[in-house]
Write a structure and sequence with these properties.
mainly alpha, 2 domains
């Protein structure tokens, strides 16, 4: 309980410090600082933590768990969308049995966004400090492999797939080679 309290105190305190500094520093400083952290600070800290981590264990389990969680999240989100559409159509039809697939009341981009939100989380920016606070550097490699080989690849690989307005448009654009 104390570790989580310390973690939240640090997170809230640093966010407040950032809010205060943003009002005091010149307008472009926060953008450059964010780019520096994203492109230089985070990769250097990841390498430094990996040098301290024990990679002799079954580290390959972390990305597998990530992909299982991602696919489970996608499946549950897809089931939720279809269940809601089924319930809506069931009420409109007077509780008649419906044997065909019913369209969702959500637009295709909304459905894609919902599925993506259910699949991937903020495992890097929030997961890293939580892992370090609870288990220290000993198991940090698991969090790093989970994030880099799991959620990062899924987010960048599947975002194109789910962001298309219609799944058929995705396959047609891939066949044409235009990437749209």
């Amino acid at each position: 309980m104390i570790k989580i309290l310390e973690l939240y105190i640090h997170l809230v305190g640093l966010v407040l410090l950032g809010l205060i500094l943003v009002t005091k520093l010149p307008k472009d400083v926060h953008a450059y600082f964010g780019k520096f952290l994203f492109w230089i600070g985070v990769p250097i800290s990841n390498i430094a933590f990996l040098r301290q981590a024990d990679l002799s264990r079954a580290i390959w389990v972390a990305p597998i768990v990530a992909w299982v969680a991602i696919l489970l999240g996608a499946g549950l989100a897809w089931a939720w969308i279809n269940w809601q559409a089924y319930l809506k159509n069931d009420v409109e039809q007077g509780n008649a049995y419906i044997s065909h697939t019913v369209p969702s009341s959500w637009s295709q981009p909304t459905q894609g966004s919902f599925i993506l939100a259910a699949m991937v989380g903020n495992t890097g920016y929030i997961g890293y400090p939580v892992t370090l606070a609870f288990v220290g550097t000993k198991y940090f490699a698991f969090a790093l492999f989970y994030d880099l080989l799991g959620t990062t690849l899924a987010a960048y690989g599947l975002v194109w797939f789910f962001s298309c307005s219609l799944w058929q448009k995705c396959s047609q654009s891939a066949a044409r080679g235009d990437g749209n």
